């Protein structure tokens, strides 16, 4: 059974850092674009960052709200995509989900409707 499993969420103070991981189980992520999405209470889901497939150069994208603070990367040996989050702000508080879609051409996308697989999510809380 193909699934994605997130880990690494938690409670952190403003200005702190967290590392989220998204691991593929039952399939390899090499040919998939993988994205991180978040949803805060009362708000719509938004794309945070994504990385295209290996054949498409693992190109990255970031939402304006996190550019310069978050970094997405692949670990092909571990079949994992990580999101390093620095300089966290209270407005980063949300449930973070990873998602994957087969990526045969072009950049990754923040369109949640096209994603094929979703993880269950991990809570990130930024508070003093």
Polypeptide structure, described:
It is globular, with a radius of gyration of 14 Å. Helices cover 0% and strands 48% of the residues. It has strands at residues 3-7, 10-12, 18-25, 32-39, 46-51, 60-62, 70-75, 80-85, 94-102, 117-118, 122-126. With 128 residues, it is an all-beta fold. Strands 2, 4, 5, 6, 9, 10 and 11 form a seven-stranded mixed sheet that branches. A four-stranded antiparallel sheet has the order 1-3-8-7, with no helix packed on it.
Please give a handful of descriptors for the protein shown:
128 residues; mainly beta; seven-stranded mixed β-sheet; four-stranded antiparallel β-sheet; 48% strand; globular
User: Total strand count, please?
Assistant: 11
The level of helicity is under 10%
Low-confidence stretches: none
Structural class based on helices, strands and sheet pairing: mainly beta
Radius of gyration from CA coordinates: 14 Å
- How many helices? The count is 0
Mean pLDDT: 95
Instruction: Assess the beta-strand content as a share of residues.
Output: over 45%
Q: List SSEs in N-to-C order.
A: EEEEEEEEEEE
| 3D shape | globular
**Major β-sheet, in short?**
7 strands, mixed
| End-to-end separation | 40 Å
